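With this grant's support, we have settled on a layout for protein records. A representative record follows, to show the layout.
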Amino acid sequence: MRRIGIIAALIFCVCVYIFFIAPPSTFPVPYHLTVTTGETSSTISRQLVADGVIRSRRTFQLLMVALGSDTHISEGQYDFTQPMSALGIAMRLSGKEFGITKTKVTFPEGYTNKDMSARLATVFPDFDTATFLKLTANEQGYLFPDTYRFFATPLPDQVVTALKNDYQQKVASLRTDMTASGHSESDIIIMASLVQQEAHGPIDSPVIAGILWKRLQNGMALQVDAAPTTYSHKGLPNAPIDNPGLIAIEAAIHPTDSPYLYYLHDHSGAVHYASTYQQHQQNIKKYLPNI
């Protein structure tokens, strides 16, 4: 019986070594794995098996479950310069490998694509800003301003994917209201980008959004300082002027219906409203006497 027990223990140890410790002989070196936002251990395991990186999908998925990362794998590029065990790969992808850290990057609401590019270049000196700007040439307004975490050398397409996916996740619950508003999503995002520059916070944003929508309805020029073309041309700009946050987007969807048609900011940033042009002129004299 003792001999059988020893043999069973040896077999168990061999199995553990094969499936958890020893990398397969087919492990390609170097190996580069790109993970996009939203991918799970199920989809990643298929690729790893196909590439000869792991032996068993089931083993890899069980390891990810044990590490608490089966449904969330951090996006980014993972570079392997030497063969690694299934356990090591699972720890790497779950962010639990010792010494593997991510760098936090915050993009404030109202950042333009160029602002984002500059921030990325500051945080990651070797970041390919030219490619980032090329990839985002027609994406301004749809790159969500938020805090992200990337590995040391993120690729531009990985960053763009993360920004766009975050936008989709944030506005998903708002699309029914967008449709009900009578405005297209693109017009709402353009309006939100204007509101982002003109208002400060959840109190002023829906009021100013209501004023700007009313000006459009009345055939007036929007006259938004942050978008000079709105002085010489009626209607919305052709594209968003920045990447707005949720407060501005929700304000564009749910504007406040007020009697006001004009507003201005005093030197402290406070907003003063007027229903008529005459009242607006009085506000200018009162709050901006030097203009």
In short: The longest helix spans residues 2-21. The beta strands are 31-35, 76-80, 103-106, 147-150, 262-265, 271-274. The longest strand covers residues 31-35.
